[in-house]
Amino acid sequence: MPEPLPITSATNPRVKRLVRWRSRPAERRGAGVALAEGVREVERALEAGLVCTAWWACPQLLGGRTVPAAPPGVERLTCPAAVFERIAWHRRPEGLLGEFVAPRARLDDLPPAAAAGLYLVAVGTEKPGNLGAMVRTAAAAGCDAVLAVGPHVDPFHPAAVRNSTAAVFHLPVVAVAEPEAAIAFLRARGIALHAALVGGGPAPATGGPVAVVIGPEDRGLAPTWAAAADAAIGIPMAPGPVDSLNAAAAAAVLLFDAARGRWSFPPQRASPL
Fold it and tell me: Where is the MRM3-like substrate binding domain (predicted)?
């Protein structure tokens, strides 16, 4: 295997491209790249079978950490801490970053819904960190897939990867630009829409597949979703100054409520947190 290519200057074109992607995420999405930063994130991207195209390592920052081996044939680059900190997305970088071919799941790629199928539909979640946290919850609740709806959603942004603990690489996450396309898909697959709406009540008992639909924190779901919903669901809250939860917290409550009775917690997955 060839020796890693040393990159010593922050003005290197490869470095400048990664830095540019921080302020121009659409450019990265257009290039079809997912960035996994951190040992855990890179390991899980490899476990999910993603194709790695570039492997950045900073021995100074990695120290004595055990890191996965770079896949055979992948371009390997090394850089000093000052350069790696320029390309890193996180405040305290570990010293490992992988450029991967981003998954391109489509609605038609999803298998038919099982009778106990569970889906998360995250509408207008444009903050990648929030979307990542919701995908993490969806994976823990046993969801079959996540539909990220909106023209600017970015499920493979480094913040989404980190906050999902790289679950975005293992759970099918489909970016859907228009709500009508998502609604049509759910209708065609026989998946009931349970939309989180102001004034919503308990989720009705259902024997078929369900999609829990969560809107953006600032304005909630649009009338399009309210009109399409099979049920309006909500979270009862104690009287007081708090009248709502953030989208990630609401998704956790509603998904685990929907998951009850659909599957039981294996002992090895039980968590006190």
Answer: 12-98
